Request: fold
Amino acid sequence: MTITTINDVVAGLGAQNNNYWAMKKFSAGQAAGAFQSSFYAAGNPGACAVPPAYTAGSGYACDKTTTGAMTYNNAVTQNWLAKWFATSTVAGTLILCDRLWACSGMGFAATTYSVTTPGSLPARITDSGVGVQIWIEQYVAAGANTGTITANYLNPSAGAESGVLSTILSAPVIGQMQQIPLQVGSVGVSQLTSIVNSQTWTSGSWGITLLKPIAAIPLLASGTGYTLDWASVGLPQIPANACLMWIFQTTAATANTVISQTQIIDK
Reply:
């Protein structure tokens, strides 16, 4: 850590080329309270391609070169999120995340989807996955569905654990995300091994995304901008080669556009 005084923060904010703008046009969420991914939304950066199928055996890890990742420069010393502005056409909460690993191709059959050679988390994760979360990401909208989804994974100590999503949102839309809670007492995820869908759905295709949240900003009213300064945002570190994306928790089943400016300082 090289930030020792407020002057270090001020100097970082005053540096050139540390302002990064992004704009995403999210598809409509299923309902108020639903989460939508920015990764497949049009805008700047552009939409990414669907990640490899869970049977691919490689290519699951994500970094700043992955299509759809937000643009920024790697630090000479260390990157810190020092200021964040955002505005949205729909009220909600915007979450900035480091996308670590993703797969697709999980369908609507009641079966076990075993990941082929899942591999390790990216090298930028040096804590063996402490704080890593498991999310379902919807690639093809689903019909009515019920049942549970169980994620089998290794924790940061390489112990086998399981997390269960006990209430699936029926008929999720494209881009919708649902978090799978980790096993009680679990502190993170180092590797995903398999996913078990307990009930056959009528349709749909989805995958799993492993990510680490970095910060969140409340957008309390549509069309109004909000800013978090360095003290409010907490100066979270952004590791080199992070694959930055947003998750938007909407307050309405309405398509929305988000514009954001982040100031990432190198100190």
Observations:
- The first helix runs from residue 6 to 13.
- Residues 6-14+26-250 form one domain.
